[in-house]
Amino acid sequence: MFLLRGLIYLFFIAGVAHVISLEGFELGPNAQYSEDSLTETLQDALAGFSAILFFISAYLSVKFRYAGILLGALMSMMFVREADAFLDEYAFDGAWQIIVTAIILTVLLSIKGKFGQAYTSLKEYSTTASFGFMSAGIVIIIAFSRLMGRGSLWQTVMDDAYMRVVKNMVEEGTELLGYTIVVLAAVELLVYVYRRRDQSIRSIIKSNLVRLPKLT
């Protein structure tokens, strides 16, 4: 089973890499990797999808409830941030800041007086495989992609042959890889929660069957 999961992850990441290259192959030097590109759109989709998966894990697991809520809220905020151009055009300028602030306030109210439980839930989460995926994904999105997308770096390397599209492709492509890894983290947590939940249900059924009086 673990081999199958590994292969699925491999093909999933390879598929994402192919998506990144599509705009380049189609438009060549005219590619922009801008807000309305397929790469950016997929970033939005993966951020939203991972948020949903984390919230589902929070619903299914008491142990990881607060961890799931916090992670789901984090990815929801990142989803809103990625959709800032859409919100600016179809809502109003600065709409994403208001929505993100609302999410933060909602989360703070939901864990008010339960910070100890939230900390314990996050500590338990840190022992799972999902935590490693999540940490790597967030670091890639927030830090690594920004460092790799510095204009000064690419201007220095390419000199007079500098093309902004190369910088954009590397930055946005790396960021998409980060979101892909976060989705894998969300999947890992959901699988873990589901298995633990299934085992708990089986244990309860088994213990109840043992307590039943034997027929003579």
Summarize the structure in words:
The chain is mostly helical and 216 residues long. 82% of the residues lie in helices and 0% in strands. Helix 2 (38-60) runs parallel beside helix 9 (164-211) and helix 3 runs antiparallel to helix 5. The longest helix is centred in the C-terminal third of the chain and has 48 residues, at 164-211. The model has no long low-confidence stretch (mean pLDDT 88).
Q: Describe the main β-sheet briefly.
A: none
Query: What would you call the structural class?
Result: mainly alpha
Percent of residues in helices comes to: over 70%
Kindly provide the radius of gyration, computed on alpha-carbon positions and rounded to a whole number of angstroms: 21 Å
Strand percentage: under 5%
- How many helices in DSSP terms? 9
**What's the mean pLDDT score?**
88
The low-confidence runs, each spanning 5 or more residues with pLDDT under 50, are none
Please tell me what the overall shape is: globular
Please report the distance between the alpha carbons of the first and last residues. Answer: 43 Å
Structure summary, number of beta strands: 0
Task: Spell out the helices and strands N to C.
Answer: HHHHHHHHH
